[in-house]
Amino acid sequence: MSPSRPALLALATVALAAGCTTPATSRSAAPASTPGTESTSAAAAPSPSGAPARDQLLAALEKSRASTYRFSVTGDVPDKQKVAGSGTFDPKAKRLSVKYKITGKETEQSQRIVVGTDLYSREKSNETWVHLDLKRIKKDSLYWFDMTDPTGLSRFTSSVDQVRSTGPNAYAGTLDIEGDKFNDGFLPVGTPAISVWFGGNAQFTATTDAAGWVTSIGVTLRDSDGALKMTTRLSGHGKPSGVKKPSNYGEAWDFYYDKK
Fold first, then answer.
1. CB atoms within 10 A of CB 75
2. Neighbours of 237 (CB within 10 A)
3. From CA 231, how far away is CA 84, in angstroms rounded?
4. What angle do CA 158, 163, 169 make, to 5 degrees?
5. What's the rounded Cα separation, in Å, for the pair 203 and 54?
6. What is the DSSP letter of 136?
7. What is the pLDDT along the chain (260 residues), one digit of tens a residue?
8. Under a CB-based contact definition with an 8 Å cutoff, are residues 220 and 229 in contact?
9. How far is CA 133 from its chain centroid?
10. Could you say which DSSP state residue 253 is in?
11. C-alpha to C-alpha distances, 242 to 68, 131, 220, nearest whole angstrom
12. DSSP letter for each residue of 2-51
């Protein structure tokens, strides 16, 4: 497979407004950068248990993404910025709670709770939550929020290319990334904040526990400024999410639902 050199962009964040305030939309776009690829001999290798490393890792990823899990994230995004976040996702009940902050040239932060098709959003903990009915939002709208894979773990799983075992319950390899669409992306896993235009490659590491759950994912993308490194830690697999809608919130303005 020949290496490719995609451009990287920081994803836009969208804040919803209630009452008589106007909506705020912020976008941090990094200059087009060209990640290279590291040479690797990451051909699938047998794991200590005898199963191919790729098969063993994919089984753990499939198990983890199908169940409730908590996540915490730290890492780099384009333009020498940093991202940090945490949350919980229950894919079966379609419940999500996540908060994250991007720091660097400017600070962008967001908190979201999603219960089914009801999204509650705010920027800071001392602000009032704003409710948006996702059933009334068109999928091509800036305000659409896709609960199919909000943490990016499913796309990470489908992007896994070569895998090798690096020790008991430890793996390393490459990702083969398809080009992202507008305001789309899956890295870092947990709080997607990077869009890889035109597709490309990345290096990754992962660990699992004795029960077969994925416990950490590390990804490295290279651009003209060096390496963008990001780490996601997973825990609480299969436990109740505890995600509930906020007790106090306001309704988003009707223009968020405009069908233009």
1. 25
2. 17
3. 10
4. 105
5. 14
6. G
7. 333 334 444 554 434 344 322 222 232 332 233 333 333 333 444 455 568 999 999 999 999 999 999 999 999 988 889 999 999 999 999 999 999 999 998 889 999 999 999 999 999 899 999 999 999 998 888 888 999 999 999 999 999 999 999 999 999 999 999 887 766 889 999 999 988 887 788 999 999 999 999 999 999 988 667 789 999 999 999 999 999 999 999 999 888 887 65
8. yes
9. 22
10. P
11. 10, 19, 32
12. -----EEEEPPEEE--BTTPPPEEE---PPP-------------B-TTSS
Neighbour tally for 160: CB within 10 Å: 18
8 A C-beta contact, residue 68 and residue 239: yes
| Side chain identity at residue 182, one-letter code | F
Find the length of the chain.
Answer: 260
Is the peptide bond prior to 188 cis by the omega test (within 30 degrees of 0)? yes
Closest by CA position to 81, among listed 189, 260, 230, 243: 230
CA 51/CA 221 separation, integer angstroms? 28
